[in-house]
Structures are given as C-alpha cells and as structure tokens.
C-alpha cells in the first residue's frame, strides 16, 4: 500500500471515530484540540472599561465603598475545573441523601464530560420542586460543599424588587450594585453555585419583575453580557451554576421553566431512606452543637421509624430531633450535672400523633 492510500485510510478511520463518538454523546479528542480553549481565569468585566468607571466614582464621597468593592473585578477570577474528586464526593452525597439520587446522577454525567474535556465546572440550570420542608435548600448547600465551590444564596420569597438583583443607577444618591454582583465581588472564583431559593414566591414592582431578571441570567448567551444597572457594563456571568428551588412550579412562567432542567422530588420515602435521612440530620445537629461525644453515634432503627410516624417532612424530623436533644440536655442542666456523661445519651423522642404521608400536622411541632 503506497503512502497516499495509507493517509486516506487513516483519514477515513479518524472520521469514522468522530462520528461514533458524536453518536454516543462523548467528546471527540480531535475536535477538542481544534476548539477554542476555555479560560483558566475569567475577567468578569473588561478591566479597562471598569477602571474608567472607577475613576469617575472616586470623585463621589458617597460611592467610595462601592468603588472599593468593584476593584475586585479588575483582576480575573480563577475558574474551578471539574475533577474526578467531584464524582467521588457526589457518590458520597448520594449515599447520605438518597432521595436526590436522580438529580445527582444527572449532574455526575455532566461533570464527567467536563472532566474528560478539561473544562471548568458549569452545571446546567436546575429547578428542584417539592412540598415545603423536604430539604431542597439543604441539598443545594450540600452540593456546593461536595463540589468544593463557593455558594451564593438568594432568598427570593416575598422579594419583588428587581433592584436587589440588578442594582440601581448611579444617578440615585443611595445607588449600589445588585446583590449578585456584590456577592460575586467577594467570591474567590468566577464559577460559584448560585442558589435562587423559593423562586415561586417572587413578585414584581414598578421597576420590573424578578422573573424577567432571572430569564437573562439563565440564558447562557444573555448571561455572557449581563448588565447590572449600577455598573452599566456587560458582565461575564455565563460560568455561574444556578439551582432554583420552588414549592409550586405552577406559579412560574413557562419561559423560566423552559430554561431549567426540572426535578420534582419524591416525598414517598422508603423505610431505608427514612432511616438514612433521620441519621444524617441527627449527625448534623450534634456536630452543629458540639455534642458528638455526648450522644450515641447512630439512632436506633426503632427511634427513626417512630419519629417518621409523626412527621410529614424532613423539617419536621429535624425539629423533633432538636427538641429531643434539648430535652436531654435540659434534664442534665436541671440536675446540675456539670461534666460530660459517662455513657452516651439518646434523644428523648416523645410520642406524638401520627400523620398521614404528605399531610401537614396542625398546631405546634414537638
């Protein structure tokens, strides 16, 4: 076989390999080398344009604090690359929060593809919805911790002021950048996780509708040139990962929902999942209160099951655990036992009326 025929055969094989990889949804190494490399650091604002803005602001005494804040954007922010440790961390999180297995499985596939392509971490816009009290916000925080990226949280319930997210014009005496830009200025990376909590409870004002601002943020092309009204320069926010939470998605507009991958979280937990969740909450409470050496390391099965019979949500379980721990500590305080216990303690979970699955208990929680 002559040299020309050999080259043609290799070209044919390489083209076939590319077609096969594309059909499987896997990255093509040949295409990756030809593609424009992704940055290791990201300039949120054009430094020269931002410096011009800052030079103008310096002359105004009432804007010096904002001027100092925005100086953080004169330097590019590093981008956290997707790495194999993130997959291991999500596997661990899935074992601790099995009710979120479907969500985490999808995110692992996204992260895997970014790892093999050497890309910065960037999760698709995700909308988590379920009845209140089933751990959506907690999952978001655990997700950020597992991925080892900063987490910017915005509680949107009752918020109708778009100026909170978008800022207001420098022509106003109390003008300031929006809270998104303010938090990002303090963030050490350019691709944090952004939690938009209770997005179904937002509203509008004469300045506009919060949902309209979110539409721009969740559309990657628009997010590449997001304009905060105070800075009034295009900002690169397309590497932010957004996770939204809601109780009732029927309150959300179709355009917003179309920009997100929706996950309706199941609240019909198996007995094994209920035990896992109760024990995870229990460990978290002990760690938060510095009492890991006081109480038993693991809740007995019977105690986990007894609690769930009288609780309709994870939030209810957490409250009952908190009350059970406090009851035991209170008894020791009243007895003036001023040293650590000789034997491990067990939370005092008092009986409570049973609740049907999915029902909300009336009156005060115990």
What is this structure's SSE topology?
Elements: H1 3-24, H2 29-34, E1 41-42, H3 47-57, H4 64-70, E2 77-78, H5 84-96, H6 101-116, E3 126-129, H7 136-147, E4 151-155, H8 163-166, H9 179-186, E5 193-197, E6 204-205, E7 208-209, H10 210-218, H11 220-223, E8 226-227, E9 234-235, E10 241-246, H12 254-258, E11 261-264, H13 271-288, H14 301-309, H15 314-334
Parallel strand pairs: 3-10, 3-11, 4-5, 5-10
Antiparallel strand pairs: 1-2, 6-7, 8-9
CATH C-level of the largest domain: Alpha Beta
- What is the N-to-C order of secondary-structure elements (H for helix, E for strand)? HHEHHEHHEHEHHEEEHHEEEHEHHH
Identify the overall geometry. globular
- For the record, the CATH architecture of the largest domain stands as 3-Layer(aba) Sandwich
Q: Give the terminus-to-terminus CA distance.
A: 84 Å
**Overall number of domains:** 2
Overall pLDDT score: 85
Description:
The chain has 366 residues and is α/β, with parallel strands linked by helices. The protein has helices at 3-24, 29-34, 47-57, 64-70, 84-96, 101-116, 136-147, 163-166, 179-186, 210-218, 220-223, 254-258, 271-288, 301-309, 314-334; strands at residues 41-42, 77-78, 126-129, 151-155, 193-197, 204-205, 208-209, 226-227, 234-235, 241-246, 261-264. A hairpin with a 2-residue loop joins strand 6 (204-205) and strand 7. It has 15 helices and 11 strands. It folds into 2 domains: 42-264, Rossmann fold (3-Layer(aba) Sandwich); 269-366.
What are its keywords?
11 strands, 366 residues, disordered C terminus, disordered N terminus, alpha/beta, two-stranded antiparallel sheet, Rossmann fold, five-stranded parallel beta sheet, 15 helices
């Amino acid at each position: 076989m002559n040299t020309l025929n050999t080259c043609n055969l290799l070209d044919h094989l390489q083209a076939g390999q590319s077609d096969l990889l594309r059909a499987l949804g896997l990255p093509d190494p040949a295409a990756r080398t030809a593609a424009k490399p992704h940055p290791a650091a990201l300039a949120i604002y054009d430094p020269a344009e931002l410096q011009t803005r800052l030079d103008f602001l310096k002359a105004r005494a009432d804007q010096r604090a904002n001027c100092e804040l925005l100086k953080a954007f004169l330097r590019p922010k590093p981008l956290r690359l997707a790495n194999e440790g993130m997959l291991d961390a999500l596997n661990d999180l899935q074992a601790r929060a099995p009710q979120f297995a479907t969500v985490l499985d999808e995110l692992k596939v996204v992260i895997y593809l970014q790892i093999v392509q050497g890309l910065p971490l960037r999760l698709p816009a995700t909308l988590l919805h379920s009845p209140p009290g089933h751990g959506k916000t907690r999952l978001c925080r655990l997700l950020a911790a597992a991925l080892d990226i900063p987490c910017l949280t915005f509680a949107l319930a009752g918020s109708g002021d778009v100026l909170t997210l978008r800022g207001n014009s420098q022509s106003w005496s109390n003008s300031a950048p929006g809270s998104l830009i303010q938090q990002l200025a303090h963030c050490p990376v350019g691709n944090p996780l952004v939690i938009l909590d209770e997005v179904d409870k937002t509203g509008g004002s004469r300045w506009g509708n919060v949902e309209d601002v979110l539409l721009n943020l969740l559309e990657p092309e628009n997010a590449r040139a997001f304009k905060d009204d105070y800075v009034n320069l295009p900002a690169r926010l397309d590497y932010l990962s957004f996770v939204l939470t809601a109780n009732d998605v029927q309150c959300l507009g179709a355009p917003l929902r179309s920009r997100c991958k929706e996950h309706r979280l199941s609240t019909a937990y198996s007995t094994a999942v209920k035990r896992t969740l109760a024990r995870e909450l229990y460990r978290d409470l002990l760690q938060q209160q510095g009492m890991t050496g006081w109480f038993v390391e693991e809740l007995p099965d019977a105690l986990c099951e007894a609690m769930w019979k009288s609780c309709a949500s994870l939030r209810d379980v957490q409250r009952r655990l908190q009350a059970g721990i406090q009851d035991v500590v209170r008894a020791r305080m009243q007895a003036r036992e001023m040293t650590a216990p000789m034997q491990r303690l067990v939370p005092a979970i008092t009986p409570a009326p049973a609740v049907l699955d999915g029902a909300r208990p009336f009156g005060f929680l115990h």
